[in-house]
Give the backbone structure.
Amino acid sequence: MNRVFFAVSVAAAIACAGCGGSDFDMAPVSGTVTLDGKPLEGATILFIPVASGGSETGPASSGVTDAEGKFTLMGPGETAGAVLGKHQVMITTVSEEGGDSESDDIYSDAASQEKLPARYNAATTLDFEVPSGGSDAANFDTTSKKDDLDEQAEDY
């Protein structure tokens, strides 16, 4: 069920990331995602700002990996980059258009399509600090091997 919530949350966050402009300081962010040492194509990367000291967090930013696993983040209103500061990072291989359109259980379909363990998405342990000058080194080397955290997230 946790993966169901995640899939719906990612779709909503991506939709919101495309709305309006940004009144927050942004910087360009790009990088590469690999799975078991190979480029991961078609993964969605979501950067969600983390609040610090009661400040507003700002909008999420997202990107999609290409055939070489490379991505560039886009924020609201097609603004390149992400809000400055610390972000929680989620990576998923479930797409909005994926799944069997004949199925009544779209949530089970989404969970079964995910190539990455929960520690990279529904129970993410990833974070990234966006510096004022931006970064072209937002690299994430993922593995398909599950650990205890992944098992717990799937049982939820």
